[in-house]
Specification:
- The protein is mainly alpha-helical.
- The protein has one domain.
- The protein is rod-shaped, with a radius of gyration of 50 Å.
């Protein structure tokens, strides 16, 4: 991060210096004209104007290029900061989701224990109901047998 900030600061300073050190019109004209060999024929004024047009962009376009580079680097830094923010948000969401999953797993385990306890209680209740049913039936069989024996005993 510090390296990027230093790079941006250097670019800004370079652009500031470029704005102060702009060449005057005479220097620009000299830079635009192609250099000729000493034995080359001298051209007239119209030929020179045509060459000026073909020579390309003015020499101070480099400051515009530096400005574009500076803006691009600032956008890259902003993009990197946004990526870091998004990564942090993803980490927080992942951690939160992990905690929720753990809580849900604990709840499922608790509900399974409750279900097992309820099943054990149901089996226990069924066992006691079966015993009670068996005891009642045995008692009624015993009394029914006594009731059948009692009239036979009285008749004899």
């Amino acid at each position: 991060m510090d390296l990027r900030q230093d790079s941006l600061s250097s670019l800004r300073e370079l652009i500031r210096r470029a704005g102060r050190d702009r060449p005057n019109d005479a220097e620009r004209d000299y830079q635009r004209q192609p250099q000729q060999a000493p034995d080359a024929p001298v051209q007239n004024a119209t030929g020179s104007a045509q060459q000026d047009r073909r020579a390309g962009p003015p020499a101070d376009d480099w400051s515009g290029t530096l400005d574009l580079v500076l803006r691009a680097s600032e956008k890259l830094v902003a993009s990197e900061e946004r990526v870091r923010d998004l990564e942090a948000e993803v980490r927080e969401l992942t951690e939160s989701a992990s905690q929720e999953i753990e809580q849900l797993r604990a709840q499922v385990a608790d509900l399974q224990r409750q279900l097992n306890d309820a099943e054990a209680g149901r089996r226990h209740a069924e066992d006691w109901l079966r015993r009670l049913n068996d005891a009642v039936r045995e008692r009624f069989r015993h009394e029914a047998a006594q009731d059948r024996e009692a009239p036979a005993a009285q008749a004899s």
